[in-house]
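chain below, 82 aa
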Amino acid sequence: MSRIGKQPIEIPAGVTVALLKGVVSVKGPKGELSHTLHREISVSQEGTSLVCLAPKQTKQSSALWGTTRAVIAGMVAGVSVG
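prediction:
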């Protein structure tokens, strides 16, 4: 089970997130980034945070879960801090 994937991603003020058909788009004062999700990974927004979910508990989905969370966290940091 991924420990990194369990951590929620906080969305700072001034950053907006759009979740559409397997694509996560993050827009902030420093620009806009998007990432296409793997079919085994889903992302949901809960208030001011994002949560990555991996319904299947396979070795591959666990690795993708943590990697996806890290990529999205980097996107949020990139559009807000630079």
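The chain has one domain: 3-80. Strands lie at 9-10, 16-20, 23-28, 31-36, 42-46, 49-53.
thats it, cya
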